[in-house]
Amino acid sequence: MNTELTALEREELRMVVLGYLAPRNPGAFTAAQIAPILRRRRAVDFPFADQDVLGALSFLSDKRWAVSVSSDFGVSESFRVTADGILEAERRGLC
């Protein structure tokens, strides 16, 4: 399955991921946890890979709308929304 996303699809996926994280602010999630949930909900109308969600999370982290939380065992990388991310999601009507 070719999941090369266009710029608009990447932008939409970033917003959907932020909208997913914002109401769950105490929790931290990996891309592998978020991706199947977004697929089941049909949150976007295009196919995407777990790596695309990881890219969206990295973008959100760069904007300081999410923060990376490393596992105590040092293997998995989860992301949690920040206060700035919650404000951005509210401004955009995502939560």
The SS-based structural class is mainly alpha
Shape: globular
- Roughly what is the average pLDDT, rounded to an integer? 93
Low-pLDDT stretches are none
The CATH homologous superfamily is named Winged helix-like DNA-binding domain superfamily/Winged helix DNA-binding domain
Estimated radius of gyration: 13 Å
- Number of E-type strands: 2
Question: Can you walk through the features of this model?
Answer:
This protein has 95 residues and is mostly helical. It has one domain (7-91): Arc Repressor Mutant, subunit A (Orthogonal Bundle). The chain is built from four helices and two strands, in the order H-H-H-E-E-H. The protein has helices spanning 7-21, 31-41, 50-62, 83-91, and strands at residues 66-70, 77-81. It has a two-stranded antiparallel ribbon with strand order 1-2. Strand 1 (66-70) and strand 2 form a beta hairpin. Helix 2 (31-41) packs across helix 3 (50-62). The longest helix is centred in the N-terminal third of the chain and has 15 residues, at 7-21.
Please give the structural blueprint.
Layout lengths: L6 H15 L9 H11 L8 H13 L3 E5 L6 E5 L1 H9 L4
Helix pairs in contact: 1-3, 2-3
What is this entry, summarized?
This protein is mostly helical.
Brief descriptors of the model:
mainly alpha; 95 residues; 4 helices
